[in-house]
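agent: user wants the full assembly modeled, not chains individually. Plan: 1) parse entity lines 2) check alphabet per entity 3) run joint structure prediction 4) return tokens. Steps 1-2 passed, two entities, 400 residues total. Proceeding.
--- entities ---
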Amino acid sequence: MELLKERIRKDGKIKSGDVLKVDSFLNHQMDTDLFVEIGKEFKRRFADAEVNKILTIEASGIGIACLVAQSFHVPVVFAKKTQTKNIAGDVYTTKVQSYTHGRIYDIIVAKEFLGKGDKVLLIDDFLANGKALEGLIALVEESGAELVGAGIVIEKGFQVGGDALRKRGVRLESLAIIESMDEETGRIVFRDDEEGSGTV
Amino acid sequence: MELLKERIRKDGKIKSGDVLKVDSFLNHQMDTDLFVEIGKEFKRRFADAEVNKILTIEASGIGIACLVAQSFHVPVVFAKKTQTKNIAGDVYTTKVQSYTHGRIYDIIVAKEFLGKGDKVLLIDDFLANGKALEGLIALVEESGAELVGAGIVIEKGFQVGGDALRKRGVRLESLAIIESMDEETGRIVFRDDEEGSGTV
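--- prediction returned ---
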């Protein structure tokens, strides 16, 4: 998605430890007009799929998922990262290891909001090692719902998550796949870039 | 907002401890078509205000804020609840006590996304004791931005938060103010209800 890649080149900041900061438009401050375009693009890519529910994970996936849902006209469910007293005990749950924080946490979805008959599109802002997405897939499988696929805004193609999920047969659509990035030069190369067009 | 009140009467579940569960459409599963209508209503109520930024707090405020932003055509910033390594040290921060969880946590907003020149509308799903909203107001004041007001989807009018904020002079617009609710009968009375119309 060219609009997104341009925005990443313009406003993304490469930090040490393979961190790409896109918090000026994606996951702290959020450009919701861009999210609408992202929603249209996912709708185009999953036009043949009968999606009737979008599943994401708190926190930064929620805003994108809600605007993607406007293109699909389906409800959004977000998996919660810790058990609160407002959630009944009747939940699907699995454990996820956070790439950003390094710790393991539980994710939960109330059973009443996911189950047989649901055709689920997963939406998230980032895909790196794929642990969050694997957790969401485990919840979908546990619930008996059908996994349609996963829509990711930015995939770090140099990490293992995306290709591992593709090998598993997950229909994965990433709008920008970063093949490499260089903290010193600020150069970002996208997977489907033509030779040399990946410069800032 | 009558559409919202009808939905609360239809799908809200009253639990012990003054808990109103609206997680089938508001804060776990999210009816984004309803959120669009909520956005239009906030736009109507704040039509005279020159809002140029929406501030909310993770997690359940984000989806609503993003669809409200579609009515205002402004970016959304969400306050994060714990410090992650992806946030630079240059942040506004304050402490908030959670009504739901009972614990105290830090909320942070990166300084680059809030400051002088910003005319900020706060958006959140719930207002009960008002601690989260007070925390957001503290961040706005610390940043030098201008607080335009706060838009709340559901206010628990029988708790102290809303009226305390109104006494402080905060322009507070709550789309449904619950005056009382009864776990046994399921009866919910809204503040501006006519006599007897508050029954389920």
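agent: reporting back. Helices of chain A lie at 2-11, 32-45, 60-72, 131-143, 161-167. The first helix of chain A runs from residue 2 to 11.
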